[in-house]
Design goal:
The chain is 23% helix and 30% strand. It has 349 residues and is an alpha/beta fold. The protein has two domains: 6-159 and 316-346, Medium-chain alcohol dehydrogenases, catalytic domain (Quinone Oxidoreductase, Chain A, domain 1, Alpha-Beta Complex), CATH 3.90.180; 162-293, Rossmann fold (3-Layer(aba) Sandwich). Helix 5 (214-219) links the parallel strand 11 and strand 12. Helix 3 (160-172) crosses helix 4 (189-200). The longest helix is centred in the middle third of the chain and has 13 residues, at 160-172. The chain is globular, with a radius of gyration of 20 Å.
């Protein structure tokens, strides 16, 4: 429990550029509701989704942003973003287990309960409700997972969103040791996580990244690295992989289905090169391919990830940490794409 009444936070005031992010020191500390915990945030990861949400990228409308949240509704302002949270439970609401107080926790970013009630459709922390770019955050106790690890708070904050997304994609695609995967955007947070998690399953991994990041994706565990922008079919031939983990989309997308074998699985959870692609339906149905859109985390994905972290099966790829008040700088650094792994806001800086 805290005796303070206000906290630091970054308010997103509206859809727009970095100027829409406002650093405040007078935000009321939230009180945990029924079945919730209050978490003292120690670190929070920076994600592409933070920027997408800020600029209204998720909206499919005509510029009115009435569907710009992850859940397809209008975003409520001001909003505190930040989906990757590592912190310490300092208080609990009615009905929550008081034994959680003092525990270091990771927060599951895909919420099935909020405001003391089960949700009909999942929420995403930092989108439908406030997230971790603040000194304190509340969340349903069921989404706060105690973790026993020697890793730093900043290192742990590099895991929740990216690694859970990657593990969810591998789970949906039923990846096993018998599979060969191609991962696009392999040097980013989700891509580098997918490399490690696929190798933990015993699969073979082909990573696609820029020429400057070839060694970094090999260091992350990839068996082979291909240069982004070069023809995948020329490099691999048709029907070369069992699974495609796609985080990119864009104009070269049709090649992904050509290199995917009959009965192959295509899983997508990003479109940084462009969300509109050209699909030849004959490729899809004549090769009996399966398409898997991956956003909502399947039950069991996050607790499995926590176990892998505790067992040392995956490692943090922490590229750089920033203080809270430098979130705009962190997002600009993120957009330059000159790093591999994750950026994190460290509340101790």
């Amino acid at each position: 429990m805290t005796d303070l009444e206000t906290m630091r936070a970054i308010y997103l005031m509206a859809h727009g550029g970095p100027e829409a992010l406002v650093y405040r020191t007078d935000i009321p500390i939230p009180a945990p509701r029924r079945s919730e915990v209050l978490i003292k945030v120690r670190a929070a990861g920076v994600n592409n989704t933070d920027i997408n949400t800020r600029v209204g990228w998720y909206s499919k409308g005509d510029g009115d942003a009435t569907d710009a949240s992850w859940g397809g509704q209008a975003l409520s302002f001001p909003r505190i973003q930040g989906a990757d949270i590592c912190g310490e439970v300092v208080d609990v609401g009615e009905g929550a287990d008081a034994r959680l107080i003092g525990k270091r926790v990771l927060v599951e970013p895909c919420l099935r309960e909020a405001n003391g009630e089960p949700l009909v459709s999942p929420w995403y922390i930092g989108s439908e409700c406030d997230g971790g770019f603040a000194d304190y955050v509340t969340v349903a106790a069921r989404h706060a997972y105690p973790i026993d690890s020697s890793l730093s708070d900043a290192e742990l904050a590099s895991f929740p969103c990216s690694y859970a997304t990657a593990e969810n994609m591998l789970t949906r695609a039923q990846v096993s040791e018998n599979d060969t995967l191609l991962i696009t955007g392999a040097s980013g947070g989700v891509g580098s996580a997918a490399i490690q998690l696929a190798k933990a399953r015993g699969a073979s991994v082909i990573a696609v990244a820029s020429g400057a990041k070839q060694q970094s994706v090999l260091d992350a565990g990839a068996d082979q690295a291909l240069i982004r922008g070069n023809s995948l079919q020329d490099a691999l031939g048709d029907n070369a992989v069992d699974v495609v983990i796609d985080l990119v989309g864009g104009q070269d997308w049709p090649e992904l289905l050509n290199i995917l074998r009959p009965f192959g699985r295509y899983a997508v959870s990003g479109a940084i090169a462009g969300p509109i692609v050209e699909l030849d339906l004959r490729t899809l149905y004549l090769k009996d391919q399966r398409f898997l859109g991956c956003t909502v985390l399947d039950e069991g994905v996050f607790i499995r990830l926590v176990g892998l972290i505790e067992q040392g099966e995956v490692k943090p790829l922490l590229a750089r940490s920033f203080p809270l008040e430098s979130l705009s700088e962190a997002q600009a650094f993120f957009l330059d794409k000159q790093f591999t792994g994750k950026l994190v806001v460290d509340m101790a800086l």
